Amino acid sequence: MLVKTSIHGQDGNWGRVASSIGASMAEGIRQNKIEIWLDKVCMFKNGKFTVPNKKRASRVYKKRNIEILVNLNCGKKEAKMLTCDLSKRYVEINSHYGL
């Protein structure tokens, strides 16, 4: 859900995606090998956040459909997942968390 709220809020906090990868406890994952891409814009590579073209990256968030590619660079398997965005009401409720 945190990744979805990040996209909805047009917030480039890709630590949320990287954190989810680490929390998966999958074997063989090394932070310095992970790549995170949004619609062919690299956001995270070699253990660091990297946005080579900020204007192009900001346009990604405005799109109706966003493809997130996570490359662990540690094997030959792959998986795909389809998901949906969050309702505006969900985001409103959770934006007041901790207040």
Model description:
This protein has 99 residues and is α+β, with helices and mostly antiparallel strands. The chain has a single domain, classed as ArgJ beta chain, C-terminal domain (Ubiquitin-like (UB roll)). It is 32% helix and 15% strand. It contains four helices and four strands, in the order H-H-E-E-E-H-E-H. Strands 3-2-1-4 form a four-stranded antiparallel beta sheet. Strand 1 and strand 2 form a beta hairpin. It is globular and about 40 Å long. The two termini are 19 Å apart. The model has no long low-confidence stretch (mean pLDDT 80).
Question: What order do the helices and strands come in, and which of them pair?
Answer:
Blueprint: H1 2-8, H2 15-23, E1 35-38, E2 41-45, E3 48-49, H3 54-61, E4 68-71, H4 88-95
Antiparallel strand pairs: 1-2, 1-4, 2-3
The number of domains = 1
Structure annotation, total helices: 4
**Spatial sequence of strands, sheet with the most strands:** 3-2-1-4
Identify low-pLDDT runs: none
Largest β-sheet summary: 4 strands, antiparallel
From the helix content, strand content and strand pairing, which structural class follows? Answer: alpha+beta
Question: Which homologous superfamily in CATH is the superfamily?
Answer: ArgJ beta chain, C-terminal domain
State the end-to-end CA separation.
Answer: 19 Å
Percent helix range: 25-40%
Radius of gyration: 14 Å
Please identify the top-level CATH class: Alpha Beta
The appropriate CATH architecture is Roll
**Strand coverage percent:** 15-25%
- CATH fold-level topology: Ubiquitin-like (UB roll)
What order do the helices and strands follow? HHEEEHEH
Overall geometry: globular
Compute the number of strand runs.
4
**What is the mean pLDDT?**
80
